[in-house]
TrEMBL record:
SUPFAM superfamilies: TPR-like. This is Ancillary SecYEG translocon subunit. It comes from Photorhabdus thracensis. The chain crosses the membrane at residues 24-42. One of its GO terms (cellular component) is plasma membrane.
Length: 206
């Protein structure tokens, strides 16, 4: 770094710097300002888009609950076209209704779409848990076990191991089922789930 002997030399150096680099600086400032404006616009757009999705989801949800004509088709269209958490929740609601009608293949389809639609770990875990339950009800124990491998997060261990144990039991693997139920019991889980796991373990022993 140069050492300036007096203020005049400093002023002259600054003038030379801006003369040599002024255009580049202005260009950089314009780019920086443009990026900032673009970022703020994107944030605002995302917020507005989510708000719009939330309002549309409420309408879709009310339509499904009321059983209004065309509500199912509207909900399917909304779920397919809405690439955020509200689209995921719409798919899961459609899956729930399909399960209630014993349309397990449709429920499987809706939940698979929900899984692929989100990167949120908790939403993915919830969708995969429900998907594994549906697959087990379809007598697809191997598919359910594969789905459970995608469930992440310590908060889901007990319920995942409960389903894993059921799937292994369906395959005739009593030792594997016992290990899964025991692992679920050892996790931090609500008492209701622990009571159910205990009951299943006791039934294996009898």
């Amino acid at each position: 770094m140069e050492v300036y002997t007096n203020e005049n030399e400093q002023v002259d150096a600054i003038r030379r710097f801006f003369a040599d680099n002024g255009k580049a600086l202005v260009f950089g400032l314009v780019l920086g300002a443009g990026a900032l404006i673009g970022w703020r616009y994107w944030q605002s757009h995302q917020t507005n888009q989510l708000q719009g999705s939330a309002e549309a989801f409420e309408q879709v949800n009310r339509g499904l609950i009321s059983g209004a004509k065309e509500s199912h088709a509207t909900a399917e269209r909304f779920a397919a076209e809405t690439n955020n958490s509200y689209g995921v929740m719409a798919h899961m609601h459609l899956a729930q209704l399909a399960v209630e009608k014993n349309e397990l293949a449709k429920a499987d389809q809706f939940l698979s779409a929900a899984v692929s639609q989100t990167k949120n770990e908790d939403l993915q875990a919830l969708a995969n848990i429900r998907l594994a339950r549906v697959q087990l009800a379809e007598d697809k124990a191997d598919a359910a076990l594969k789905t459970l491998e995608q469930v992440k997060g310590s908060g889901w261990v007990a319920v995942a191991e409960d389903i894993r144990g059921d799937a292994l039991l369906k395959k005739g693997d009593i030792a594997g089922a016992r290990a899964a139920y025991t692992k679920g019991l050892g996790s931090d889980s609500p008492q209701a789930i622990k009571s159910m796991l205990n009951l299943k373990l006791n039934n294996l022993s009898s």
